[in-house]
Amino acid sequence: QEVPAATWFREYVEIGSLSSALLEAIVAHASSIDRERLLPLSEEKSQRFLLKYTLSRFLQEHVPHGISLDCITPLLMPLRPRLYSIASGPSLGKNRIELIVARVVYEREGFLKKGVCSNYLIDQVKLHDPVLKIFHQPTRHFIFPNDAQLIMVGSGTGIAPFRAYMQEVAARAMNTPACWLFFGERNS
Q1: Which parts of the chain register pLDDT below 50?
Q2: How far out from the chain centre does Cα 84 lie?
Q3: b/e per residue 57-94 (b: at least 16 CB within 10 A)
Q4: For labelling alongside 146, which of 14, 29, 100, 116 has CA 20 to 30 A away?
């Protein structure tokens, strides 16, 4: 299937990181003028340099002429799925799910890094936008406890599954005693 390069980079390729092998291939296939300009960057290729650039940022700032996608395609990583726990109970309906998405932005080695999926979902996806490709992985081993007092501990799992559980308790009008939820965040 042929797709425009912009679509391919946006939807099929992991552009969040730049590897030393990819940087070397870009320099090797660049025009001679660009190769001279990019060679010092390629030789530096320290961990700090690779942390500074994402593939998209590197290509935007150091536009190499004469590069065909054929020469770098084998070195590109396919876009990996991002896994989210569903934040809504099954009683909400088969055609609807809710997510809780925390924006991922952090600084490493003095360079700002952004989460690919969280920032995409927050900044670009609009309500009823049909462009998201999702798959569902059901949990077969969880059974809703009836009339049980629960202490729920979210130790790194996020709050979504607990919200879904409590939403399901409410939807089923289960006679559940008080439930406690303990969870933590790395930053306030």
Answers
A1: none
A2: 9
A3: ebbeebebeebeeeebeeebeebeeeebebbbbeebee
A4: 100
